[in-house]
Amino acid sequence: MNADTHGPETLSARIEAPRLEAGLYLVATPIGTARDITLRALDVLNAADILAAEDTRTLRHLMDIHGVPLRGRRIIAYHDHNEMKQASPLVAAMSDGNSVAYFSEAGTPLVADPGFRLAREAIARDVRVHPLPGPSAALAALSVAGLPSDRFLFAGFPPQSGGQKKSWLTEAAAVDATVILFESPRRVKQTLGILCEIEPKRIIVLCRELTKKFEEVLRGTAQDLYENLPEKGVKGEVVLVLDRPQANLPDEAEITEMLSTMLGDMSLRDAATAVAEKYGISRRDAYQIGLTLGKG
Fold first, then answer.
1. Do β-strands 152-156 and 203-208 pair in parallel, antiparallel, or remain unpaired?
2. CA nearest 32: which of 68, 60, 55, 58?
3. In the chain, how many H helices and how many E strands?
4. CB of 182 within 8 A of CB of 137?
5. How many beta carbons lie within 10 A of that of residue 190, not counting itself?
6. What confidence tens digit (pLDDT) does each residue in 216-258 have?
7. Are 103 and 59 in contact, with CB atoms under 8 Å apart?
8. Are 47 and 71 in contact (CB under 8 A)?
9. Which residues, listed in sequence order, are joined to residue 208 by a DSSP beta bridge?
10. Lowest CB count within 10 Å: 10, 141, 205, 270, which one?
11. CB 252 within 8 A of CB 289
């Protein structure tokens, strides 16, 4: 860039139209900011023989933003309500040598988005499926949550009804991993209320409108978030990230009573070992409690 030039530097990027081999291309699309799309996704969007989309208007808008021509191709709607009808003809087109690119409305296909039946039918007919990684609300939320990411569970959307939702959340919250779930902005207050019943001190991160203008990340306990959230909920797309469940620490009085009983029949060393194994505490801690008993 010229040293005398002011303002942001502009880098040129070339969209290519390579000949694609026949198959299904699962293309991740931006969850907010249009520039989050990858160059490879634009190449496939430009070159695929057939385009399929969860929302045809969203895909057409994305093509307009990035200057990708339609060139007479038709965008086929493929969503939850017509996948039974559309999957077979699309896979048949792949079997005939065509490249079919499928785009979610936002994010990665199959991650709480349509595309599963299409991918399954393609695989069943020995058609190659190509992943085009990119934006994902679940992984974006995990990356900014500040919670352990070495082991996590993506749980999707909870049920809407109260009884089913509580059972579903109780089961998900019991998993020894960071849990990621999606929720409607109108129901997020209710969901946090149920999480308060399960474990009020559980650390939760609420991510709203990720990558968009009003992006917001709120951190706190389930109780804190519930109390500070408006009754009507929030606006925009919401992802909740739950910390791992807190360890159920044994009651010290119970440990003391157990040690006291055991010391009548065995040495302090053996009693401390037995208690440590039973309650999942260190043998040193159990031994120290036993010493206190002896002094008493």
1. unpaired
2. 58
3. 11, 10
4. yes
5. 17
6. 999 999 999 999 999 888 999 999 999 999 766 667 788 888 8
7. yes
8. no
9. 216, 238
10. 10
11. yes
